[in-house]
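Handoff note, outgoing to incoming analyst
You'll be picking up this chain. Sequence as last confirmed:
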Amino acid sequence: MGLREFYPPIEPYESGLLDVGDGNEIYWETCGNPDGKPAVFLHGGPGGGVLPDNRRFFDPTAYRIVLFDQRGCGRSRPHAGDPGVSLEHNTTRHLVADIERLREHLAVDRWLVFGGSWGSTLALSYAQAHPGRVTELVLRGIYLIRPADEEWGFAPTGLAHLFPAEWEAFSGAIPAAERHDLLTAYGRRINDPDPAVRVPAARAFMDWELAANTLLPVPPPDLDDATVLAFTRILHHYIVNGGFLPEGGLLAGVDRVRSIPAVIVNGRYDMKTPPDQAWDLHRAWPEAEFHIVEDAGHGGSEPGIRDHLISATDRFRDR
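Most recent structure output, in case you need it:
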């Protein structure tokens, strides 16, 4: 049997903006079968927004597929690409509450929760807060946002060893006197009121973020300045605040989700969220199905990763 392919492209049959408070409206859409099993897709980033292919992890004849853009990005409003938009009310707690508000708005009782990369962080956070609302979890590219996890990506002793040219461009965009704390230096620039400062800084930050996204290089997406700024502002905001996770992080809350059927998938050569994070979650939660994909990196569309994710949603569709 060959690797599972994406389901065919589909369009939403319903969409809208939902007022979630604090002056925020989140864009949402539903696809597939209106009478099918509810599933919600949580995008990565944070700040990445949903993409059309995200709809294709689910059998559209069996699932009522819900997707939404998290606060500040995609088609949600206000957009964090505007440097005047505050991120004060953009935290994990707020996003978890938004998911609940969306569930209630759509009159969903319980749903499958699917998330990759930052989406796995948010999925675990949501499930630990509302375990009774989650039928299953499908998690990819586990991102625990512990200090050591961030050191891997933003210190010269980690990922920089594998991507030296990209690291040189990323760190070299900051004056030598500030390179001891690249996150702080980039934070000042990304949030600078002068577009001549913030846009190049955001693009350098995004280039580094995309450098290690897949096992084999793929062409970078063509993104406008507002999209890049929203992504980097929101991502930076979450990184420097430890993902706004509780003391002990996500592993401390595993008992609250232990009985939820779950699938954990991680690429062996995932350079963004290396498999030690997925392994630590697996050790804390051995009841969850666990897969390391030997020929994959971080991307959810990489063949081996995609195969496991669609296999999981196929098996859960009739449950």
